[in-house]
């Protein structure tokens, strides 16, 4: 079995490498201990050093068990949390100390050692949730993206348990269906947010150990909340004690002009088969052992094209990696989602690999996000000249399974928060923000919002500070939370807003070319459920505005962003409205968004 797994690892065909490589608690010759296994083909004279042998390079020499460069050693009597590294002579003739690439736990930065941890034997209680989960194509999916360390930060990082105690009832109350964790693997620099890692199997020790994270996910599942993990397989931290020139050769990274990424980190050579096995197995480890429900792959455009630059050509080796990853993950876990964060126009990102697609289930619609935010930032006088920014998304929407993100990337580095991006004075910004979020929920596609969006933070996100929860004391900000909560409830309660949303027959523009008034309307329809969404993008108020209908009957307004409970002026349509001659007439509030539902069909 070991030979077969080693062969598959070398051929880039295994997603089970974590079951073999790394440091595993086991029993040999009647003794309990740990077996260490390392792939380092250019290393020689390899030792395990640690606090259990006073960091001696002589006491625990590893054995080379395979000509390909696999090293192994069993050491009895070890226990959880003990620190270790590998000490060896590298290809340059230098003696170096390196972390275990497949370590399951690590020291907290600035310390740099791997730590022993037996991740097995956690008792799960989420069987019911796992039996009911799927890839959510015909289910509502409203994702709450979060950075665990700064969601509820005090004078230190909160543990997984401390966050869980507050987060779970909060997510349930707000109506989100999933949480998406920004990377929670070991990384030395907090400011990298986990995207520049040194331990791709190691749970970030800032917040707790592997069992504590398992408990967090178990509790989320018991509360009916799905968990998505952000994973960055493009690059890794360049720290010399970690993966960089690991055995004296570029074992993980490119050895050519592509070695250094646009972020200054080192780029994985995704054309190397052992690297493919290493990364695929890391993702499978979290799905299998931590019951993760979805993996979001960061920077897919940098996988498809060298450095994300289309002019540099396609990276065929990396494209093959991503196809292989998605195919193998779907075979092993047919109910787990694979999600692409991709800014490219590469075709077929969410098409199956057997149809020459990349095999993802969903793709972030970054074009929609950029066009939408640019439009909402415009002075209403000029909106008519960029009318197509709100209509263009539906021209390509059915080419992939899109997810609509307002993510962490939009609220950092001087970009301003969602509220700050809106045009107008203080009051108008809040009105437009209510309109914007309604538009996101109304538009076909799954939804994602970064933490803090839901109470209209003025301050950009800072990973070293807690979210400004005190803002919820102010009615204007708390009203945005109420808006999110109600939109999540409406979204989850109406199948026309999520069932068959990737079927063009379920969507139709009703008002698409009214540039002068900057008013938009569309209908979404599944079976007998008909809903109409209307958006006024200017401060003009209309007492009688005609809205076309496809189905004659009586319509009831089930949501209006101008209600006082959301901080508006209460210009809403309280009574059911009958249609006549293919239209019904409504009050259309200034910068307002309305949702209507067919409640009685005409005979």
Summarize, please.
The protein is α/β, with parallel strands linked by helices. The chain is built from 15 helices and 29 strands. Helix 4 runs parallel beside helix 5 and helix 14 (426-442) packs parallel to helix 15 (475-493).
Task: Jot down its keywords.
603 residues; alpha/beta; TIM Barrel; Immunoglobulin-like; six-stranded antiparallel beta sheet; 15 helices; 25% helix; elongated
Q: Quick check: average pLDDT?
A: 96
Structural class: alpha/beta
> What is the subunit organization of this protein?
single chain
| Rg measurement, Å | 26 Å
CATH topology category name of the domain at 141-241 and 291-313 and 337-497: TIM Barrel
> Helical element count?
15
Profile the largest sheet. Answer: 8 strands, parallel, barrel
Which architecture name of the domain at 141-241 and 291-313 and 337-497 does CATH use? Alpha-Beta Barrel
Distance between the termini: 70 Å
Low-confidence stretches: none
> Main sheet: which strands, in order across?
10-11-14-17-18-19-20-21
- The share of residues in extended strands comes to 15-25%
CATH superfamily membership of the domain at 141-241 and 291-313 and 337-497, which one? Glycosidases
Description:
It is a single chain. The protein is α/β, with parallel strands linked by helices. Helices cover about 25% and strands about 25% of the residues. Among the domains are: about 140-240 and about 290-315 and about 335-495, Glycosidases (TIM Barrel, Alpha-Beta Barrel); about 505-600, Golgi alpha-mannosidase II (Immunoglobulin-like, Sandwich). The chain contains 15 helices and 29 strands. The strands form 7 sheets. An 8-stranded parallel β-barrel has the order 10-11-14-17-18-19-20-21, surrounded by 4 helices. It is elongated and about 90 Å long.
